Amino acid sequence: METIKNKTVLISGANRGIGKGLVQAALDKEVKKVYATCRDLDKMPDFNDQRVIQLKLDITDKKQIAKVASQAGDTQILINNAGVLNAGTILEGARDKIETDMNVNYYGTLNMMRAFAGILEKNAPSKIINITSIVAYSPLPSIAGYSASKAALLSATYSARIELAKKGVMVHAVNPGAIDTEMNKGIDWDMPSPLSVAKTILSSVESGELDIIPEEIGLGMYNAWKEEPSKLAKMFHNMYHGE
Ligand SMILES: NC(=O)c1ccc[n+]([C@@H]2O[C@H](COP(=O)([O-])OP(=O)(O)OC[C@H]3O[C@@H](n4cnc5c(N)ncnc54)[C@H](OP(=O)(O)O)[C@@H]3O)[C@@H](O)[C@H]2O)c1
Q1: Residue 40 CB less than 6 A away from ligand 1
Q2: Which residue minimizes the CA distance to atom 8 of ligand 1?
Q3: Three-state secondary structure string covering 171-211
Q4: Is residue 68 in a domain?
Q5: How far is ligand 1, taken at its centre, from the CA of residue 83, in Å?
Q6: Pocket flag, ligand 1, residue 81 (CB < 6 Å)
Q7: How far is the CA of 81 from the centre of ligand 1 (A)?
Q8: Left if phi > 0, otherwise alpha if psi is -120 to 50, otherwise beta: which for 6?
């Protein structure tokens, strides 16, 4: 088991949801330091722990990323959690929302991987953990732009995994189904808490799992996809058409 104890971790979108859960879960795992980053530091919760260093970071802003990279040069585990979800279909969804999802989820995360690859190589053995989504495997048409951005991100994650394989940097993909966060506001499903999912993510990383499905809803979808990709497409067809 590869423990994350005593490691230095950087987490994007750490002010709420899964990111906030990941900060707490990392502290519970006795990490050395957490760079908890978010767009607006006024929104950052007080983690009440001296190991937490708060940094302002919008992952679409390359200047902010460069500054954070210079402040957090001892990062050993980069957790790319920040993301946005806009509803809309591929044919009728607002074009600017589709672009926003792509700019944050794909290009923003790409910015982070590119800025930190050298740092992680220098600090190896190290890790990148990208939070993608189960819809990276098969699109849900009501959130088509989001699905496309996460499929692109999963592809980039797999490319980086191979590119960094001999440089001591392990690249993990986390593909959740549904978690009880702002992103799923209004959805009436029985979803796990972000903290419980964050704990599962970090334990799975420690176990060396590269592709992590951290909760039951996602696991059901993933198993359907693994059995036969058209099975997950059919599930999403039925969900979209209310069948
Ligand atoms: N919840 C789920 O069921 C689920 C399922 C699959 C994947 N995911 C993924 O899990 C990750 C976390 O989502 P969540 O469920 O915790 O949702 P959330 O509560 O909406 O949190 C999203 C986080 O991303 C941050 N963010 C958005 N745009 C950003 C940017 N340009 N730069 C930096 N931070 C930015 C938000 O900051 P602000 O507060 O400033 O907006 C917030 O901290 C996302 O990548 C999401 O796609 C979630």
Answers
A1: yes
A2: 133
A3: EEEECCCCCCCHHHCCCCCCCCCHHHHHHHHHHHHHCCCCE
A4: yes
A5: 4
A6: yes
A7: 6
A8: left
Q: Are strands 211-212 and 169-174 parallel, antiparallel or unpaired?
A: parallel
How far, in Å, is the centroid of ligand 1 from the Cα of 166? 30
What range does the domain containing 194 cover?
8-215
Q: Tens digits of per-residue pLDDT, 18-47?
A: 999 999 999 999 999 999 999 999 999 999
In-domain check, residue 229: no
Residue 225 belongs to a domain: no
Number of domains in the chain: 1
pLDDT for 197 beyond 90? yes
Ligand 1 in contact with 36 (CB < 6 A)?
Answer: no
DSSP H or E run through 131 = strand 126-131
pTM of the model: 0.98
Q: How confident is the model at residue 14 (pLDDT cuts 50, 70, 90)?
A: very high
Q: What is the CATH number of the domain that holds 201?
A: 3.40.50.720
131 lines ligand 1 (CB under 6 A): yes
